[in-house]
Write a structure and sequence with these properties.
Structural class: mainly beta
Amino acid sequence: MTPDLAPAIPTDADCFTEWKTLGSCPAPQITDSYLGNNCMGTTGVFVVGRYFQSGNRFWTTNGFMPYGPYAVTSKLNRDTWNWLSPRLMCITTSADAAYWTGFGMQVRNPDGQLSSTVTVGNKLGSIPTLPSSGTTNPFDANACLDPVMTTAQAQARFAPAASTATLGPVTISRRSRPCNSVSGCGAWGTTATEATTTAGLQVSGGTTIRVTLGPSDCGVLGSNGLITTNSCPTTGGAGSYEMHVAGSCLMLWQRRFSAVAGDGSYTQTDYGAVIKY
């Protein structure tokens, strides 16, 4: 048979920041859009799908909000998002379901490609399905976006009579790139190891299960919402790590920026890790 010489389709994570270099990324695909809870702690309009692209630029005067796909709808009419990843993004809105549902959502990626259009629904008060990619890429924000670990799943991790349980060893990676508030960000530098530690669970107060990262107490299991479930303080350069603990995997991440110089230049540093258990 004639061999298939067609190049492999890039992954969502590859296309997220490297779309300009790759030049072969598919158009964005929307599978769902809805008004929901926990858009980084607020209500907001969510867009779920694949191949969403980062604009590789940040709104430096507004908390470094990321630029990404442009929402082709008069009700949003913008390209900055509170949460932006290859498969999920959201923007803060009010909880007014009459206004923020029932309209068409379409997005245009920074490379100019358009998505299909879906109607924005209402999922306030419910827990939508999370779009996990299942990879082990430490910088893939959807790598372990599976449902949050339940209490029953956590209890099964403990040996009889034990008050602590190990989820697994964690290697935290770090990478940086130069950026400018006007011209955007350049290529990523070499990935380095920031730290190695262990993730685990610990019984507290006789009934509560808390998450640990090395010596750090990351809070009650699944206590802080849909995307980010725990926050782990650290003495390292990241300051703290946001963590998502699912039934069979865990991912953590953080993004830090240096001060913006007079010529608009600054450095972005990302931290990340993914483990499966």
